[in-house]
Amino acid sequence: MANSGQKNFDVLIIGGGVSGTAIARELSRYRLKVGLLEKEIELAFGVSKSNSGIIHPGTQNPPNSLKGKLCVQGNELTRKISKEIGVHFEEVGELIVIFKPEDFPQLEKIKSDAEKLGVPGLKIVDRAWLDQHEPNLSKDVHAALYAPTAGIISPYRWAYDLAENAVKNGVEIFLGHKVVGIKRSSGNLRLNVAVSNSEEPRGSLAGSERTFQANHVINAAGLFADEIAKMAGVTDVEIKPRKGEEFLLDKKREHIVNHIIFPLPNPKSKGILVIKTSDGNPMIGPTAEDIADKHDLSTSAAGLNKVLESVKKMVPTISENDIIAYFAGLRPTAGKDYIIRHEDKVPGMITVAGIQSPGLTAAPAIALMVADLLKKNGLKLRKKWFFKKQRQPTVHLFAIPWQKTKELIARDRSYGDIVCRCEMVSAKEVRDAIKRGARTLDGIKFRTRAQAGRCHGGFCTTRIMKILAEELGVPLTKLTKRGPGSEIVKDERA
Ligand SMILES: Cc1cc2nc3c(=O)[nH]c(=O)nc-3n(C[C@H](O)[C@H](O)[C@H](O)COP(=O)(O)OP(=O)(O)OC[C@H]3O[C@@H](n4cnc5c(N)ncnc54)[C@H](O)[C@@H]3O)c2cc1C
User: What one-character-per-residue DSSP string does 262-315 give?
Assistant: First the structure.
């Protein structure tokens, strides 16, 4: 591989999931040269693309745990930052239900643990309350713990918009850049990076190896944080994947529940839930199965049966026929709690590992903790006076009133050119998504919801491909679903 020069930074972040992008946005407040390296062709294509999208209130965490503390703080910060950067967050509340009076002590224990962590507004609600506020709940449910501060957000739009705001404030993001080696040399950390894709200038660096150097490196590599740790000589981090299968229901069941519905938790997970999502489609799941393969994202009939059996006990009218899509995600576990620390044996190296659930919620609090660790370890954090904390919200026709849509169409007719009929996504939104960084069909789906409806892109995929090819200036044979290896049209000449 050719080496294409060295780039120097104050801080380099490895990993562009919610942890990495939240850290990038937080550090972009300061007068620092910050870079983010992501091995995939787009951000949020790791664990952050496959989760339940819940901003947890902080229930169901041991009161002395780091993840519990960061969850409660993250819930608060998510509300604030989502407003600043224009990402839709909705407080819907959660209910942890019990079926027998004998389970009351467990509910009381969850409540008192959560109160120790500072979770506000908790109350145990009875059958009459449930009849009034959650009418589709099984009549077998006896009572529930109500946590009003649970919310929902789109996990990918959250990560994309955190990153976009970070870039606006000077952070440089390198996609298709996989860290393959780390060395310490003359007080710095030097990273060897294999480039599979590069846009600077137009892919010419693909296939090369580059060197990046920084005083401080943050390992936020999700499932692969143990591999990065080992490269730096840190040997006590081990990530074990825990698979969660989830099933998406048709939008016509949007109002099947008013809250997120939990059973009592088990030692491995918060249990199998009925989830409201910010896109409208309710979701059921996830399972929790320890596996060995970090690439195994398969779903199974056994997983489906387990999920259906569990959620039907809570909401009996959920049916297999409501399911329109399914996926699996892998929680990157490293023991019971998060590992967020400065590696004293490798000065400048910060580990952010084991970020299993509630990592989506905790991300902004993790970012604050990382900034604090950097400061404690010698990095001067001097605030920029020109930090742009606001971001113009992205237009989503599916989320705005018809009158507003009409005004947009009057301004720009391509808002009226509907590409995805299931989810009401216009050609203008698709083109804007590409201008803001989408490079793949999945990238467009996550940003706009085009292809995410009941027909799974049956009607719109070819049109989206045409727009993508036009905007990127590449032939159709170069387009992929989620990066190299997932090409859609085969080049017969190749
Ligand atoms: C089924 C499921 C449901 C969940 N539900 C919720 C929920 O409702 N609420 C909640 O709060 N949390 C939830 N979580 C947890 C949450 O999704 C994770 O905690 C969070 O997404 C972790 O983000 P991350 O940025 O740490 O990791 P990732 O998103 O995996 O980001 C790490 C990034 O590092 C990149 N990378 C890896 N190796 C390298 C390398 N060598 N060089 C460069 N880049 C590299 C990866 O490609 C990846 O993009 C859920 C998780 C699962 C699996």
Answer: E----SSSS--EEE--TTS--EEE---EE-S-TT-----HHHHHHHHHHHHHH-
